[in-house]
Batch of 4 targets.
Target 1
Amino acid sequence: MTDKRLDIITIGESLIEFSTNQKFEDAECLHKYYGGDSLVTAVAASRLKSKVGFITCLGNDAFKDYLLKSWETEGLDISCVTTVEDNNGIYLVSRVPGEEKEFIYYRKKIAPAKLSIENINEDYIKSANIIYASGITQTLSIQARESVMKAFAIAKENGITTAYDPNFSSHLTTKEAAREQFAELVPFIDILFISDKNDIQYLLELDSVENAAKILSDRGIQNIIIKSGKNKGYYVTAMQNTVFVPYYAATAVDTTSTGDTFNGAYLHAISKSYTPAESARIAAIAAGLQAHGVGAIKSIPYFDEVYKIYNSEA
């Protein structure tokens, strides 16, 4: 376990990524990398020079050493990664220019589903300034859902900031299950990332950004970031005051995990004492740069690139 205080700890899954720029039926070669929403968030913050820990269960298969070396190279603290006798999850993505991406997931009975309250070390959680998890982490298994609750409860008891993104996907769970998972965590959430397309519509059953921000603020969430694809930007509500931060990039090459990159960059900035509006601007730049590349993690930008743009616009 690290003896240094961490800026952020994320909890969730890692998946092996195989990608192609052709249709699956035509592809003869798939490129290997890795992804997973909470892992993308961790890497995005780490590349901006935050100290980040990652909690997961890692499969003892042919990809184990590749993943461990990759995470160490990214500077992640992996002292609370547990190896289990299961396979790592896999997803395949087809990115044909001008067409909607296709995904195929192999996520049943995978190593991260073994996440449980035993993997949540109280001292490790207390070593961080911010604890982050997503709704996808909760969907892995009942015990993974319990692990998120335990981590958030420890954080709340010890004055540690919690951050959460429902990240709702109908491919992974039902609206009813996602609402239940979200509702149980609401009393423990300080920072909430939600989207107007999926989360507001399906989890809150609302169609207004303003109403969503008010309802969530009334429920005690201090900082709410609504990602609006419709309006191409981010509504940032803190202390019941809302500002709008536009996308940095008007066009995108690949938006895979752009929202997770935004989350990591935002938490990085908040942990460095930037205001919510400033943090959203830094995060918008990071997400915009990531969207100009291809891949969930490969194209996440680094500190110098993001801050050169941010400081030039300040």
Note: The chain is about 35% helix and 25% strand.
Target 2
Amino acid sequence: MYKAGQGMPSRIGAVVVGLIIAVYASMSWYAWLRPVGAATRFDAYFSVGFIGAFVLLIGVLGLFYWLAFRSRGSADYLIDMDDELRKVVWPSVMPLFDAKTEAWGSTYVVIVCAIFFTIFIWLVDVFLQLTISYGLFQKLLFA
């Protein structure tokens, strides 16, 4: 069905993301259900909130494992994504602070475009504020 190791970086990455989500969700669940003032007692650590958080952790992690390694559709998607990412021509970044590298050239273009669009949106905002505050729309539309 699949070749050995096919799409492994993407599939393992999906499981790692699932682990992060599962840990965060279970810790939030436990903090939400933990009785107030019971943080130092031994029985509070093995309460319904702890068991529920542990079940949630295992369940979410199992779901991501199943999606990455057992579900045919999502496994095919992750394998295809890994194949497409191998075809990408990544910009050169070495030497790291050399202005002649592709990464720095692209960074300059992004910064200049962001500044340009920020100024443009600010000017449109100022124009609309002035026209609304002085009632110029009413004068223009109903003159």
Note: The chain has a mean pLDDT of 80.
Target 3
Amino acid sequence: MAKSVTTRSKSRKPAGRNEGNAGGGARVSVSPAQIYDQLRQRIATRTYPPGMRLSESDLANEFGLSRTPVRQALQRLATDGLVSIKNGVGVTVTDLDRAEIDQAYYLRCQLAAMIGHTAPRPPSPQDMADLKALHGRVKALLNRRGAMPLNEFSELCERFHNLVNNVIGSRMLRDFIEILYHQTDRFWFGWMGEADMRAEVTHFLHEVEETQRALEINDFEAVGYIRRNHITMMLARMAALRDEAQG
């Protein structure tokens, strides 16, 4: 049976409310796209695990909005296959079985290798500046003592994914990669509790550095193969942990 989720969190400030306006002042506008991004991130990091039910009214209260923009965000998540919306059941975070997860990752690897062959476009100066800033944040994360914060790591992975996708000239390829990334990242982050997270951040840093070097010389084929190779190596690490748990 699916669990029900209370979407209001004591530790999270309700998005969309203007802090300090207890007297009923103006609220900060939150778009359906921003709601979608936040909910997708919660699904990615398993704040909302597979099988959990999401309450449209609770989310509307959290974001300080009517139910209409929340419904639009949930419908977009359903289009991506991240939630299921059924009459009489409500909104439920979807799940994939092992075979489906493996198929999704296989497709990601194949599509990543196509990045340099489908009308790639040079990164803008802003893209390169953003990539350099991201590289600095990943290094700072590694230098930090104590446990690695999953939410920050997932945010950096998302930013890097978006920067690599900016190189893709084919809208169709970019959309397919986007959907598959968000279908699979929640399972990757899901096994972070068993993995050596500091080692995973180190692998990520290497991918960022290799991609930087490739983009500096507009070697788009290398960008695609770097992405594919790191996905493949991550799958091997995940399979080893999965087999160890079953053995």
Note: Residues 129 and 135 are 10 Å apart (CA to CA).
Target 4
Amino acid sequence: MNRPTFSRSSNRRIDPARRRGGALKPDGSPNDNDRVETGPTDLAFDEWDSLGLACPDLAAMREYRLERIKAELARRDLAGVLLFDPLNIRYATDTSNMQVWITHNHARACFVTAAGYIILWEFHSGAHLSGYLPLVRELRTGAGFFYFFSGDNVDAHAGAFAAALDDILREHAGRNRRIAVDKIEIAGLQALEGAGIEIHDGQEVMELARLIKGPDEIRAMRCSLASTEIALGLMQEASMPGITENDIWSVLHAENIRRGGEWIECRLVSTGPRTNPWFQECGPRVVAEGDMLAVDTDLVGPYGICADISRSWIIGDRAPTREQKRLYRIAHEHIMTNMSLLGPGLTLHEITQRSHRLPEEFRDQRYGVMMHGVGLCDEYPCVWYPEDVEANGYPLTLEPGMVLCVEAYVGAVGGSEGIKLEDQVLITDSSYENLTNYPFEASMLSA
């Protein structure tokens, strides 16, 4: 099959069973075969080494993140931030425990004081999952007061949690009763307010803390992207006529897990007529020779870092049609032109004003945003299309250390197919760096 050559595939020859020597892994974590924390596998470390990628210093990354949170709290004169969102807890502590389950069962919580004292309420019998981290100063239980867990005891459990937090504030914040909260059950919010605690928006605090990535976060992101691109290459090789969309998507999922990745947020793999309109998730459709395949990885890889890449390719050996090439070239021009605008000092509104305009036939089915932030997941900010900026836009100036995903969906209403493309881009001191190395389809871009 005439697949584009992807140099990262060559490192699959590395023996994943080879064990590294020494007490520490390249990222500074313990080299313990029975350790309780998640993390990259030896396969991932070997592949990164072959690519010349530096691993993050996890201790330094954690310290950087805590300082970012403290700065946002100080800016607002808040006594602390109370976190229930597992991604915010991950950012504050770098702990992970049933991340997807916890998104809809808020059984964990974390409180970060303005001085950086971290208290983690772990799920039942889960203290061992976080006890190794020096930044977590106290481990408790009792943050679960959702109905499935508490039933008719919701108010009592929420009240006990609020009383505990009240004691913490008196010990660590003196008279300051102002805290930020990201997400909380209604009973918990009412209990905190009943205790005389003033509530502010914790999601704003955390999104702004997460906005500027530190050097070790960028190293972690490069590693996560590299693993994702290797997995994506294997997925593309497996994209054969006669198998299902689910068969193809399962390769991406499995190869992510093999390297210590964590989960995939969406099932955005579609083929043939299911590529238009976008957002049809993969299913049992059997793919055929000449079908277009479009994928958006939305993948949470090693270190919990999101690798958000979109690509489209032809199933089998058939040459692309003239229409497939036209759609692909428009999508490619769109993201490349918009990417070329990026750099520090540029505002979101300026990007929108200067951006590449999709031909009118594709505007009704344009992607939701032109660009969005990315870190542990899709994050603040969003860059809106001209049609949407008046209702949804907000001011922000790009700074070094921000990472944006630049994307496009090109498919006409009623069209037979669509194209999805996306790259992940770092704002540097003077310009930008495209962190994505996965190739575009030469056959689509050739004359």
Note: The longest strand covers residues 419-427.
